[in-house]
Amino acid sequence: MRRLCSPTLYFTLIVSLGGFIFGFDASVISGAIGFIDNAFGLTEWQQGFVVSSPTLGALVAMMVAGVISDGIGRRKTLIIIAFLYLVSAICSALAINYWMLLAARFIGGMAFCSLIIAPVYISEISAPEHRGRMVSVNQLNIVLGFALSYFSNYYFLQLSQRQWDWVKHIGIAEHPWRFMLGMEVLPAVVWLLLLFTIPRSPRWLMLKKRTDEAAQVVKHLFTPEQAQAQLQGIQASLHQQPGHWKQPMTMLVSKRMRFPLILGLILAISQQITGINVIFFYAPTIFEQSGVGTNAAFMQAIWVGIVNVIFTIVAMACIDRWGRKPLLITGLSGVIISMLVCAYGFAQAQYQFDSAAMPGIGEINEGVLSKLYGIQGQVYESDVSFKQALLSALGKQDYDQYHHAILSASISMNAPLVLLGIIAFVASYAISLGPVMWAMLAEIFPNQTRALAISLVGVVNALTSFSVQFLFPWELMHLGAAVTFAIYGGFAVISLLLVLTLFPETKGRTLEQIEKNLLHKQI
User: Quick check: 12 and 221 in contact, CB under 8 A?
Assistant: First the structure.
């Protein structure tokens, strides 16, 4: 056992640090976007593009990541990915305009293909009986990255409000968002350096006919008995690989692959269309909509990260005990209920501007305040009508600068109910769609088409994620929070019905049994 856990776990922890950086990179924008909006005067579409552009980069990279990884090796590909993260973090922090920030975020998104390459590398250096546990370390690191980004954002927000000279001197007080985004430089540098210490994948070495090197790596990772078994297994699997790239492509579009692909695409779309990345990437914005104020909104976002970590660990403990389908049913049911709770909470809200009751009113000059006298005391039944009234009264520039503070001071609603709904949603997702999708994708596709099929599903997953993130600011402005969350709940209902009627249970079955039954639609 000691032999199993030392080198394999050590290299797994190094490689899975990429998952941590992904989680941090993806969610750190949640705290920075409000400050970026003020700095560059973004429209709703531009806000959506800043948040979603990494997913667009990931969409592009995932199309070629597998080919590059097969060509130059897993380790070199991971090193390139780490370098992209580093360049993205530096350029994002130093961005002088919207377009530079957009390009930097897109480059970072190209590094998101680590979500495919890292599990492949980890699986290829792990013993079969411990492969699932080793791969799950990457998922755990992702949610840890999410959580730490919320802590980091809150820290820089608090620091920016201090009157210390050094805080003003280095620019934290004026531009905290630069330091929020720039924090990623530290883990990116560490990961880049550590990746030079990991071995090449033994399976890739065997693919390149470098048998002696592969044997040396395997002997370093395992005991002599395990090493012999691993080498034999690798050689056997290589004999089963298709001889030409057209063969798996032909199989992918065949009738017998139709049902597994349908299941994979349902999982890929359901994981994103129910709104999870909106919660992760816009958490402070959503909580500000409930009227709790900026500081409290950032603090509540921390709870999102903590709950995500806790319930991901719960899912890792339960997925092989309860099964995949029960977790999906339980989680999607929770998503439906929690989204409807959020929709109800925002639907019951009322908005009334009262300058006398507004905290921090001294920060708004008299000229701006005079523009709001026309809506003083009026009661608005929806956030959409209130925002439109503010925009009409203030104009675009003043609206961008002051609407968060005005909205928080003017809303009357049950904010704890919304917080409960968001937390319940994150918990429901973390025990179901989050980890279960990746576990099932590795099970439902045949060996010959698995890499190609997962890449296809990954592209659809990224495209759905991009669309949801990109549209959210526009939906919030023109449809309102209540309708937006109700839409996510409606998609969750559709997903639940599809899971109930179509999905098999794969727990406890060999890959060969799953493949046989799925290809013949017998489950």
Answer: no
**Mind listing the domains of the chain with CATH numbers?**
1-198 (1.20.1250.20), 254-349+413-523 (1.20.1250.20), 350-412 (no CATH)
Q: Which tens digit of pLDDT belongs to each residue from 113-163?
A: 887 788 778 877 776 666 656 767 777 888 888 888 888 888 888 888 887
* Pairing status of strand 379-380 against strand 411-412: unpaired
Mean residue pLDDT across the chain: 80
| DSSP classification of residue 511 | H
Long-range contact set of residues 100-108: C-beta below 8 Å, sequence gap at least 24:
101/36, 101/40, 101/50, 102/49, 102/50, 102/53, 105/29, 105/50, 105/53, 105/54, 105/57, 106/53, 106/54, 106/56, 106/57, 107/57, 108/25, 108/54, 108/57, 108/84
**Separation CA 21–CA 207 (nearest Å):** 29
Q: What is the rounded distance in angstroms from the CA atom of residue 99 to the CA atom of residue 42?
A: 11
Mean pLDDT, residues 396-408 taken together:
75
Distance CA 439, CA 323 (A): 11
Tokens 């179901």 appear where?
Answer: 432
- Poorest-confidence range of 218-222, 254-258, 381-385? 254-258
Q: Which residues contact 122 (CB under 8 A, 6 or more apart)?
A: 12, 15, 16, 131, 134, 135, 137, 138
Q: What is the pLDDT confidence band of residue 498, given thresholds at 50, 70 and 90?
A: very high
Q: Hey, is 336 helix, strand or coil?
A: helix
d(CA 138, CA 218): 21
Cα separation, 21 vs 83, whole angstroms: 12
- Amino acid in position 91: C
Transcribe 199-253 into DSSP letters. PPPHHHHHHTT-HHHHHHHHHHHS-HHHHHHHHHHHHHHHHTS-SSTHHHHHHHT
- Radius of gyration for the alpha carbons in the chain, expressed in angstroms and rounded: 24
Q: How many C-beta neighbours within 10 Å does residue 225 have? A: 8
CB 106 within 8 A of CB 56: yes
Quick: pLDDT tens for 170-216: 888 888 889 999 999 999 999 999 999 998 888 778 777 787 887 88
CA torsion 328-332-338-344 (nearest 10°) is: 180
Most confident of 310-319, 331-340, 476-485: 331-340
Between residues 420 and 131, which one has the greater pLDDT?
Answer: 420
